[in-house]
Amino acid sequence: MSSTDRLLVVDDEPDLRTLYELTLLREGYSLVSAETVAEALALLQAESFAAVITDMRLPDGSGLDLLNWLEQQRRSERAIVITAHGSAENAVEALKAGAFDYLTKPVDLRQFRSVVATALGRVAGKPAPRRDEAAGKAKGQALARLAGPSAAMEQVRELIRKVGRSMAPVLLQGESGTGKELVARAIHGEGSRADQPFVAVNCGAIPEQLLEAEFFGYRKGAFTGANEDREGFFQAAQGGTLFLDEIGDLPLAMQSKLLRAIQERSVRPVGAVAELPVNLRLLSATHKDLAAEVAAGRFRQDLFYRLNVIQIRVPPLRERIGDVAAISAGLLERIARDAGVHPVPRLGADALARLAAYNFPGNVRELENVLHRALALSGATELCAEDLDLPDSVSTEDSSFGALPAGTAPAPLALPSEEALPSDLAAHLDEVERKVLLRALAQCRYNRTAAGARLGLSLRQMRYRMARLGIQVDDGEPPLG
């Protein structure tokens, strides 16, 4: 039997060790056991294993000692750590140290089999599948879509390769339009779940009263209109990856329910009595500073602690402007393919120079919109600077979504004493708000998400304000009327 089926179990409690061994033997694995860190290290130095399953507390050290050794030696074994019940700090520490996943005592044997199988790319109760060449190519494609030679993107790609090997939750931080979902898909593609579902959810686009039903599903008759059973996002992502975009927009009540689902690894559909176990990897993203949201009482600290095990900052386009040429080439190829345009147009030197001189407040999403318009309006095989619908320059304020340069104090508010007071304050404020929203939309090329981020609003808040003020806009299109 090869090392791909051989496991090392480390635990100083004979009864538990026997339980783990019997469970895994029934799954067709070959096992070796150790009671201490020293015994485990001796076995690891003598041979390689598919995975190491270790208790956190051991007589001569801890499971973290084994994790650190595996990391230092650049070993390929995936590590699963078993922690005491309710010890969230130990679980997070283990994931940060490189553990593939963790289990809490008392160990649920069904979950135990599932986690071990996932670590080895198997389905519990079935033999390991053969890795084919097509699967390997699919993994590489996800990462290859993150174009650009800049040091900032190479660092992101290196982090993706590293975190793809584990089940650790990852929080993606970055402005709207930087490509956080693309990074999440690359993490999924680099992991053992690459051939399983990837479910992306925009938390800011779901009405608050529907959040629980959308996330966890519901049973027929649970509420008016529930005419049949329906699975939620968690069930749809079973075995794969659930990506929660704009996680900072979740209301506090839903944050509490999400935290419980993460901790218990189970969900209860609306109207159901029993909980359903879920086995998935959770990735999340936000354009907000969640630490500041925690300090302001708008985001739960315990949920932030669970989500922020590993953080990847996705840099804005203005910090990787040297990547514009590579990104544009990939975008033009995809846009032309979707539109059936042959041959694929290319950017002339003057067009590239103009793009390189622009700060892109809307980031990669704005660049894509610019290229879409240029391709639609120009029939040339080479796009020139005049084909690009871009302003000649952009202010520092525009390039940072309203942030002032470091060290710059805001100008004092001037209140002219001779200005007439409005006779209808509510109508006056509505008109001021309407003008601000229209200005933000215009500066962000009528992208509602980007405009909302510029003003510190979620997409849901932006839609509400626009509806209240009668502003009708489709993304990328000027307002109607």
From TrEMBL:
Keywords: ATP-binding, DNA-binding, Nucleotide-binding, Phosphoprotein, Transcription, Transcription regulation. CDD domains: AAA (cd00009). InterPro entries: AAA+_ATPase (IPR003593), AAA_lid_NorR (IPR058031), CheY-like_superfamily (IPR011006), Homeodomain-like_sf (IPR009057), HTH_Fis (IPR002197), P-loop_NTPase (IPR027417), Sig_transdc_resp-reg_receiver (IPR001789), Sigma_54_int (IPR002078). PROSITE patterns: RESPONSE_REGULATORY (PS50110), SIGMA54_INTERACT_1 (PS00675), SIGMA54_INTERACT_2 (PS00676), SIGMA54_INTERACT_3 (PS00688), SIGMA54_INTERACT_4 (PS50045). Pfam families: AAA_lid_14, HTH_8, Response_reg, Sigma54_activat. Gene3D superfamilies: 1.10.8.60, 3.40.50.2300, Homeodomain-like (1.10.10.60), P-loop containing nucleotide triphosphate hydrolases (3.40.50.300). Residues 6-120 form the Response regulatory domain. GO terms for biological process: phosphorelay signal transduction system; regulation of DNA-templated transcription. The modification 4-aspartylphosphate is found at residue 55. Residues 146-376 form the Sigma-54 factor interaction domain. Coiled coil: none annotated. SUPFAM superfamilies: CheY-like, Homeodomain-like, P-loop containing nucleoside triphosphate hydrolases. GO terms for molecular function: ATP binding; sequence-specific DNA binding. PANTHER family: RESPONSE REGULATOR PROTEIN PILR (PTHR32071:SF100), TRANSCRIPTIONAL REGULATORY PROTEIN (PTHR32071). This is Two-component system response regulator PilR (NtrC family). The lineage of its organism: Bacteria, Pseudomonadati, Pseudomonadota, Betaproteobacteria, Burkholderiales.
